[in-house]
Amino acid sequence: MSVAENIAETPASEPAATNMPVKMETRDVNVFYGEKQALFDVSLDVRKNQVTSLIGPSGCGKSTYLRCLNRMNDVVDIARVTGSIKLDEDDIYDPKVDVVEIRARIGMVFQKPNPFPKSIYDNIAYGPRIHGIASTKNEMDEIVEVSLKRAGLWEEVKDRLAEPGTGLSGGQQQRLCIARAIAVSPEVILMDEPCSALDPIATARIEELIDEIKDKYSIVIVTHSMQQAARVSQRTAFFHLGILVEEGDTEQIFTNPRDERTQDYITGRFG
Amino acid sequence: MTDATSNSGSVMDRKPDLSAKRVSRRYAAEARFQAYGLGAIFIAVAVLVWLLGTIVFQGLPAFTQYKATVDVTFDADEVDPENLAAANYQALARRALYDRFPNVTARRDKRELSSVLSGGADITLKEFVEADPSVIGTTRKVQVSVSDSMDTFLKGQMTDIEERRPDTELVPSAIEGEVSLLASGNVFADILAGVKVELEAQAEDVLSSARRERRGIGILENDLEALQARANEAVGEEREGLLARVADLESDINARIRKLSGLDERAAFLYNTARSSGGSLDLTEAMPSVLIEVNGGVVKAKKVANDQIEGTAFIPLQSSAAAASGDWTVVTYVTPERGRQVKDQTATWLRELQKDGAIESTFADVLFTKGDSRAPEQAGLWGAVVGSFLTLIITLMLSFPIGVLAAIYLEEFAPQNRITDLIEVNINNLAAVPSIVFGLLGLAMFLNFFGLPRSAPLVGGMVLALMTLPTIIIATRAALKAVPPSIREAALGIGASKVQVITHHVLPLAMPGILTGTIIGMAQALGETAPLLMIGMVAFIVDVPTGFTDPATVLPVQIYIWADSPERAFVAKTSAAIMVLLTFLIMMNALAVLLRRRFERRW
Predict the structure, then answer these.
(1) Could you tell me if A143 lies within 8 Å of chain B, comparing CB atoms?
(2) Structural domain boundaries in chain B
């Protein structure tokens, strides 16, 4: 069964994606790792309260692009980013901008669940604590509870908040990581293949969760699974060899791609 | 189909060679490989066990010490309560011994007797009086250490002692001076036989000298014959000269023949004496010593017959009555007197004290309470232990923060460029620099340039810190590298700053590794000798250091100093010090393992 057929079966009840205001705007983004250029003139908008999925074969630059959005590439010494990336009206690569603030506003969830080797409570509370969000213990408790509830983990862990986060199952750990990202009230959440290390049931649970929380956050998700992109996202961008080949409403990309390469990819001819 | 393709086809079609020969060869190779590994482990373990066994076997006696309880009279005339330090305590201790053996009157004997007690007896007595000044004017029992050679003797390391109680009567002729002891049976026959064996050995020696002499004479006679022949043919002045030489040689030969006959006679005499039955023979210093304990006195045998011993009374007899069978003892010190530091006379006094119940083996508390001393029985390790402790504190306080901060900077902040590469290479090289070079650096820099005190734990710690830094930096960097990047990303992802990432996440996770590296570095520093020699920590220091600038030495240097000392008792002390050092090292390594386990369990 092709992806296109799969999409056709899902009811088209999503609002028209293009209507939402732009949350992040990237123009002519080039990324170099030393001499090697990994991204070529990528211009893409992330829209508010929508899920934008980035798809493409391995090594196409979608993760690189994602990591530009909250300046995680800064960590890599040899990485160099040009072009403009704006969060609302702020250029996040402006030297005057504090990278910590950017990352607090743009949260991130990684491929492999990576809870801190601390208690579940401390995992959630760490972000709010370093950003001075909660001033009392009660406030912190509330943040932890709400974050865990939003991440759909509260019922499962409310009785064992003091136990280490690393003791949870893979799916729970990933939801803990999402809760941890939510706890600092970000505006955008970046997800780098959040389900690739999980089993199908845990994946389904995360996908549900993404759908639930998109009303509060703007989400960018990198995925290898085209079914997942089709299920969770309203906008889809297809990358190939560091170039943004095509970008548009998910339905349009999967049913009626404009570019031949997109067509080839989603029908499984390569990648 | 061409040859080439058929050939390559046939190669490609071949199946793995599973012949029994190949398989068994493979199995044999695997078994051999395992056997090599097992053999290596076995050798390593055997050597280790042998090493530790030797150290423990040699060192254990040093943990006990013989002490003598003596009745010391603290005469008010001699010990001034206002000025306790001024009294001559050593004289008090000596007098206590003289009182115990009143018959010792000769100056030389008295000096010998006072050598039984340690030279540190005065300190013991002084501390005794200082603890309770009310003892002045009274006579008290005080336990003082015996000197090191007495201790060695009492531990049985100087000679084997044989005792037996013959079943005959023994009649002494006198109670002091020269005494002859007559037994009613041939109970001393074995001693006499021993003397004869000794004489026979001497006779052999004399005979072999005689044989050498005879060979020498033969050669001279040949020379003489040749000379004579030349003289007969020569004429005039030459003949005169040659004849004179012939005459010289003849007289020489005659002298040697006389000497030979003397030797022959001596050998014959010795043989005769050795082979004759009975008789009365002298005991010499080269033979095992025989002492007879009878009627409360001790007689040292000088002449022995089958049923009689003549000798000197070391301890006067209480009576010259006949001693019943079983009531007297023959004591033999197997090692001849001239091969021992403790002579028969002194050994006798020690035995007397032992019989009084005054000699007691105690735990050698001096080892853990006192500093070094030239006298082994007063030499303690405590000065070195404290010195090591103070030195390591300085080392830790300097090298841990500097090393960890340097490692964090290099690992987390430093840009990747030539300079950091250079620094990295140099740090790795520093770890391989011989430690004595650090000692020279310390000598040149800390002592000569900055003028810091010599032999001080402060400087020792600084030098060792230089030496330990590379170890800590390398271990810390490895530990930091080992922290999974996902943890850093997680923290960065929710907006932690770089310092927050490091202090909140990376460092706690790396801490077990850092601590392990640090403790191993510290253990290395604890065992280090060479650099400390350069900065004067090898000095002979008696006082236990009380501060970082006091002169001090450290455990391994103390071992080095003791191993270099000639006194027999220092052999055991050295091994004991090694045991103490090893104990500390094992404790530190155990701590490293424990810390690592604990931290690992928590995460």
Answers:
(1) no
(2) 62-154, 161-189+284-339, 191-282, 376-602
Beta bridge partners of B281: B304
Please name the fold of domain B161-189+284-339.
Elongation Factor Tu (Ef-tu); domain 3 (2.40.30)
Calculate how close chain B gets to A111, using CA atoms only, in Å.
Answer: 9
**What is the C-alpha separation between B563 and A165, in angstroms, rounded?**
57
Q: Which CATH class is domain B376-602?
A: mainly alpha
Domain map (residue ranges) of chain A: 3-266
- The verdict on a CB contact (< 8 Å) between A181 and B416 is no
What residues of B are in the A interface, CB distance below 8 Å? 415-416, 484, 486-497, 500, 504-505, 509, 602-603
State the nearest Cα–Cα gap between B492 and chain A, in angstroms: 7
Q: Work out the minimum CA distance from B477 to partner chain A, whole angstroms.
A: 18
Contact B504 A126 (CB under 8 A): yes
Instruction: Give the residue-averaged pLDDT of B10-37.
Output: 90
**Topology of domain A3-266, per CATH?**
Rossmann fold (3.40.50)
Residues contacting residue B291 through CB under 8 Å, at least 6 positions apart: B298, B299, B300, B301, B314, B330, B331, B332, B333, B344, B348
Q: Which residue from B492, B497, B505 is facing A116, i.e. has the nearest CB?
A: B505
> Which residues of chain B are within 8 Å of residue A114 when distances are taken between CB atoms?
484, 486-487, 489-490
CA distances from B431 to B469, B511, B524 (A): 8, 21, 12
Question: With an 8 Å Cβ cutoff, are A70 and B603 in contact?
Answer: no
Average pLDDT value for residue range B155-167: 88
Cβ contacts of B487 on chain A, cutoff 8 Å: 114, 116-117
- Taking only the tens place, the pLDDT of each residue in B234-288 is 888 888 888 888 889 899 999 999 999 999 999 988 888 888 877 888 888 888 8
B188-225: per-residue pLDDT in tens? Answer: 888 888 888 888 888 899 999 999 999 999 999 998 88
Q: For residues B332 and B161, is the Cβ–Cβ distance under 8 A?
A: yes
Which of B72, B117, B78 is CA-nearest to residue B95? B72
CATH of domain B191-282: 1.10.287
- The Cα B292–Cα B108 span in angstroms is 23
> Is A164's Cβ below 8 Å from some Cβ in B?
yes
Extended strands (E) in B118-168 = 139-145, 161-164
Q: Which of A73, A97, A103 to mutate to test the interface with B (most CBs of B within 10 A)?
A: A103
Reported as a pLDDT band with limits 50, 70 and 90, residue A144 is very high
Per-residue pLDDT, B6:
47
Q: Write phi, then psi, for B362 (nearest 5 degrees).
A: -125, 165
Closest by Cα among B100, B140, B105 to B124: B140
CB B203 within 8 A of CB B270: yes
CB-nearest to B495 from A109, A131, A166 is: A131
